[in-house]
User: Fold this.
Amino acid sequence: MLRLAVVLLLIAAPAWAGAAQDSVAAARDLYTTADYREALAMLTRLRPAATAPPDIRAIDQYRAFALFALGQAAEAELVVEGIASIDPTWTLPAGEAPPRIEALFTQARERALPSVLRQRLAAARALYSEKRYDAAAEAFTGLLLLLEDPTLARAAGADLPSMTALATGFRDLSLAADEQAREAAAREAAAASTPPAPTPLAAATPSEGVPAASPATGSSGDQAGAPAGTSDSPAPAPAEPAATPATDIVPPVAIAQAIPRATEITVPVGAAQTILLDIVIDETGHVESAVIQRSVNRLYEAQLVAATRGWRYTPATKAGRPVKYARTLEVTLSPRN
Assistant:
């Protein structure tokens, strides 16, 4: 029995040793020594365990290299399309492969990009159809950011104007629908938490209403609170200051100022990050312009700027007449737990 166990261990040892040596670095070494089949086999063993996008991309990059080198162009192009689907903006670093393989890889990526963009648009529209408006808004915003890239804009070709218009329109619809859904949910929650009023024994004397606190403060250091979906909840801000004889200006008061919720993609890792957003409120209480003064997350900021189109205020007044008013909002993205 002891001899049999020793024999079995000796038979299994090479397999264990091979598994222990499997790595992207080892596969790269095999590729550089032109051992393409063994490199491909090692990468194929590594691929199922890869979950993080950078790991998948590193494995698939050399899988494509090996497949191209072995003359399996169709399989290699499918691998390249998968890389483009994960990150359409990623390009092959110079010198990673011989010029011929590098050219084949680049051409395959360029052929894949139009399809990848159409898939992104279709996926975003599916989210909208499923009434997952917050996710749809994020997906449409992400697509619009991709279309700002010159390479991807060229890849869209003649579809660029229609794709941009569709993504913009559906993003705005998604933001508006998400805001309405959250407002309706808040009203339902408030109604459910309000106890029924007792039947009065005599006619009650009506009391004066208490004005609601504005969700934003004055023009210097306005607080918009952390967006929904983060761990922070916005604290009530002090009421707007009354007009003073020196300026005779009454600042605007927010009527609707919904801050988009952060998501898994836009929530930062580490310390909280604060965006500074400059807005100009016109004489009708609409946001005339919105500009990011301090940027921390382009994807979230695109949603934030788009959301300002639906914000409404009581106009600022000077000597009783509506005037334009500039203010800066602070929006804090809290870190992921």
